[in-house]
């Protein structure tokens, strides 16, 4: 059991309700929450451990009424089970000295805390109540105790019942601004814990008239020592609009005065002013708007300030949950996370602040555009370093990570029908093909965050008739990756300029591929397969570079599917069997199984597959791959392959010759190429270069040959000196060609 879970189990022992755990990203301020019955809080151990590696983890000391999938508000708290105080070092003082001072303050306090947590900066104190008190709408009255504790100990404004406190056993990750000021990453440690508890009335002394915080039930009066001239000068310096300053000073309002006071509070909070300053301004008789606050009392005003601050904080959380400011190749743009209506998968959009202002219905807070207030807020979700696609880490500080994880959770189960389809149809019963393909799939889910240079660099091409299940195989596998599975059926979606859909792609399926000799696509296909990076162009935005983790599957019923070279190392090509072609019953049963636990079972199987069994770079050299290579051969190489297949160099009948005139070879090649409609034919000199590559033992020499020459009705044999090619035996020439192609060839079948 981790220290965090041990603390939570002890803290919520015998207390009814739900505990809420929150993970807050240090730079962006984005918050993720989990609520859980306190009786089984240990089930959150893996969540805390995983997210605690890169986010700040907090908990609600007071239990919730019910399970929530959002941050708890005041009305969500069921019981006040403890009192809390968060005491941080004062600005402008030496940190170590401040921490010693805080400990002395805690030790000198009459009521010893039942738990003290070193948050990594200051200290958080907790006093357990012997009998948890039902809130029942009395949150403000109960919170007065926390506020009195903060006043007595010099604590922060953390007295609301729903306030999140640092969870011991986790790590304090300062944001970039704090790191720049010298703060360090450090653990949050439980430095004291006991089994004691208190009654609420034990803290009533905090409200005694002799106590600096004032008497219980009374409302403290601010010390207003400023003259009217000083109050006017203070008002002039406030970071609010001139019209708001005039309203506060003159007290002239349109509508209800209470709404005017709330508007002034909001404007000053948005302007960055502290509650103490706001109290001074709105309680000073020199300011006309102070009439109502002075009539209601400082306690009422403080509650209104707190409620206004809570509402603003919730606005920031709401904006952060939808938007973020990111660095896109040097430009600050707003990233918005949406869910695609077509795929139900998350997507991102980029826009400018004016666009968001319009989408927010031009909403303003405190006289400022909501979008501007959010962007200027210190908790604005900001990714100043840019965008990455890194499946190995959910978070990289300063970067927005496009990787969102797998779409399903692994779980043991049954996916046998899908595996049988792979074995019997995709691999046509070939065990070596099956083992390699399962390993290729397993590598993708076991090591998705490997450096791009370490990925296998092998794309899978499936060739077969429609209805054989080749695309279904890819779609089911792709469903494990959710939004990171992309299907394209148009070549320009892979080769075109605007390729933003590939930025977060991990598995790409190209259906009915567009290759067929398109040279403009060749480089793109090869780069997608092996290049460690790729350039992404969002429409209307700067080009960015992201890591290329793409695994590519190409499905087609064309003969020529991929640009496979002679010693091909990028494409593994299978011919898909037709045994279950158009068999609707067969495929429906498989789909039903995969939709009912099969996907989870497949992910579990692949994650536990032994990758040491197979070398993924040594993929099966299939007949289908050979045919792809032959399709892409140079015209002379194709001519020579046909010679080897026929077993003779010249003509259609005869035997293999040990020596043939060079001119005859060249004329034969030109004739064959012309019949095939080949426009660009190799020059005579080029043939010599290619020939010696194809036949290492080939020799060129001059020889005397005798040829019959016709004269009228007769003929005469004439001897002459010509250049000839001297060939090795046919078997040797065939072996050399196989070596060039990188795989054996069945010459009888070919």
Give the key terms:
alpha+beta; 750 residues; 4-stranded antiparallel sheet; Rossmann fold; 24 helices; elongated; Alpha-Beta Plaits
Question: Your description of this structure?
Answer:
- With 750 residues, this protein is of the alpha+beta class.
- The protein folds into four domains: 3-207, 2-Layer Sandwich (Alpha-Beta Plaits); 228-316, no CATH class; 416-626, Rossmann fold (3-Layer(aba) Sandwich), CATH 3.40.50; 634-741, Arc Repressor Mutant, subunit A (Orthogonal Bundle), CATH 1.10.10.
- The chain is 36% helix and 20% strand.
- It contains 24 helices and 28 strands.
- The strands form nine sheets. Strands 20-21-24-19-25 form a five-stranded parallel sheet. It has a four-stranded antiparallel sheet with strand order 2-1-3-7. Strands 4-6-5-10 form a four-stranded antiparallel sheet, with helices on one face.
- β27 (699-711) and β28 form a beta hairpin.
- α8 packs across α11 and α14 crosses α19 (584-607).
- The chain is elongated.
- The two termini are 65 Å apart.
Topology readout:
Elements: H1 3-11, E1 18-24, E2 31-37, H2 45-51, E3 56-59, E4 79-87, H3 95-108, E5 115-118, E6 123-134, H4 139-153, E7 165-166, E8 171-172, H5 176-180, E9 186-187, E10 189-193, H6 228-237, H7 242-250, H8 257-270, H9 275-283, H10 291-296, H11 298-322, E11 323-328, E12 331-339, E13 346-351, H12 353-359, E14 364-365, E15 368-369, H13 370-376, E16 382-383, E17 386-388, E18 399-401, H14 416-426, H15 431-446, E19 459-463, H16 470-478, E20 485-488, H17 492-495, E21 507-511, H18 519-530, E22 533-537, E23 543-547, E24 551-556, E25 571-575, H19 584-607, H20 623-631, H21 635-646, E26 659-661, H22 662-675, H23 684-694, E27 699-711, E28 714-726, H24 730-741
Parallel strand pairs: 11-16, 17-18, 19-24, 19-25, 20-21, 21-24
Antiparallel strand pairs: 1-2, 1-3, 3-7, 4-6, 5-6, 5-10, 8-9, 11-12, 12-13, 14-15, 22-23, 26-28, 27-28
Helix pairs in contact: 8-11, 9-11, 14-19, 15-19
